[in-house]
Amino acid sequence: MANTVTLTDNRNAKSYDFPILDGALGPSVIDISSLYKDTGMFTFDRGYTSTAMCRSSITFIDGEKGELLHRGYDIAWLAENKIFLDVVYLLLHKKLPDDLELNDFRKELKIRSFINEKMLKLFDAFPDRAHPMAVLQACIATLSTYYSRDMNYDDPKEYMELAIRLVAKLPTLAAFYYRHVMGYPIVYPDLDRGFTENFLYMMRSFPHSHVNIKPIEVKALDTLLMLHADHEQNASTTTVRTVGSTHSHPYSCISAGIGALWGHAHGGANESVIKQLEMIGSVENVDKYIKKAKDKDDPFRLMGFGHRVYKNYDPRAKVLKGLRNQLIDEIGIDSNLIKVANRIEEIALTDDYFISRNLYPNVDFNSGLILKALNIPTEMFAVMFVMGRAPGWMAQWMELKEQANVKIVRPRQLYIGPKDITPEHVGPKDVELKSRK
Ligand code: CMC
């Protein structure tokens, strides 16, 4: 007999069996898709803490062990041995590229890195200092208008091209908007530079001048992008899949994902970490803020700590900590912020409040410090997250596309509002247009 879980309704002693499904790794799941039909009840799971919303073969996280695999490859191994574009290829093409494939992929990304010049006019419509995440969300939604007519989204070749275009154009859009805000001349992609170096070049360069980009800076940003490339069914990926389930344009799904990522509980945390470290200001103030973070009546939270899935050190944070220390040695990072960050980490890793709740530093704790060292403006930190996460979102969207029997995402609710209190209740059979007296 197949493995099942039996649910007994104690009100009437009726029992219902639900099949248990086993994945390749991770906890088994109870298939409750017939629950409502069988029992007339829904499940209640705030924030989907116990819900698997899809089948996926892209990324696996073991939150207890602090392990992260992309298509079976451990993130620490990838960070040590591969570059961001290898991981982009891995996510999109389901295998690591050989040298020839990586070279062709690189060329393809380069030729697609330009944007239609009409899109530059979009920037003029935003107020001064509009947040880059809002702008990026609008830009990607706008990009869908350039790639909508005559496209067949059911053709894998066409949607792979859309994925590659997105990854290629994001750095250009991000750098162009930064230059627009600063009033600097736009710098076009340099096809002789690698993907990550080219982004730093577009951010920093001025016509007819030499631009200084150190190899350690390229390595740091490249690793940071790689560490953000995918992360299973987090809030923004779930948003991409949810919008994808309605058969919307893929870029509209990505634009929605950017909106979800912007929040400071998700990708906006890297910006909040730096703002918080600056607000704390000095090592002497750390205790006061730790106390605030532990106070149940105070909404203050330590940014860059805690994770829904990791109940151990986030493996991405471990890699970034090593990189952060390397950057301190080679180019220097604001040492006061580092001192404050180190003190917070030291306390949090030994304090019972944080230990008992498994609150370890997450990826955002160190990414902000690294981006600051690279002179990326704080408001653009989450944009860096988008540049890293875009291939993951597209891989998830493509997986959704390739799966059979995809259902529109449409959860139910536990209604707690008023019962029907309409005066002169009109039943559905009696509906007729009445003129107002
Ligand atoms: N500082 C202080 N207390 C915290 C924190 C924190 N950063 N995070 C969680 N807690 C406490 C929380 O108050 C609760 O305590 P209690 O059990 O006494 O009520 C307990 O820990 C569990 O918290 P939760 O909010 O139920 O946990 P969650 O899984 O719903 O939230 C989280 C996860 C990441 C939203 C949350 O830890 C948080 O807000 N962290 C700060 C923001 C942050 O760094 N976000 C980046 C996440 S990693 C990047 C990404 O994937 O987006």
UniProtKB/TrEMBL annotation:
GO molecular function: citrate synthase activity
PROSITE patterns hit by this protein: CITRATE_SYNTHASE (PS00480)
Pfam families: Citrate_synt
Metabolic or biological pathway: Carbohydrate metabolism; tricarboxylic acid cycle; isocitrate from oxaloacetate: step 1/2
Keyword Magnesium: no
Enzyme active site: 307, 364
Top-level division of the source organism's lineage: Bacteria
Keyword vocabulary terms for this entry: Acyltransferase, Transferase, Tricarboxylic acid cycle
InterPro entries in the cross-refs: Citrate_synth-like_lrg_a-sub (IPR016142), Citrate_synth-like_sm_a-sub (IPR016143), Citrate_synthase (IPR002020), Citrate_synthase_AS (IPR019810), Citrate_synthase_bac-typ (IPR024176), Citrate_synthase_sf (IPR036969), Citrate_synthase_typ-I (IPR010953)
GO CC terms of this entry: cytoplasm
Catalysed conversion reaction: oxaloacetate + acetyl-CoA + H2O = citrate + CoA + H(+)
CDD domains: EcCS_like
Cell wall biogenesis/degradation is among the record's keywords: no
Protein's GO biological process: tricarboxylic acid cycle
The family this protein is said to belong to: Belongs to the citrate synthase family.
NCBIfam families per the UniProt record, alphabetical: cit_synth_I, PRK05614.1
Protein's name according to its UniProt entry: Citrate synthase
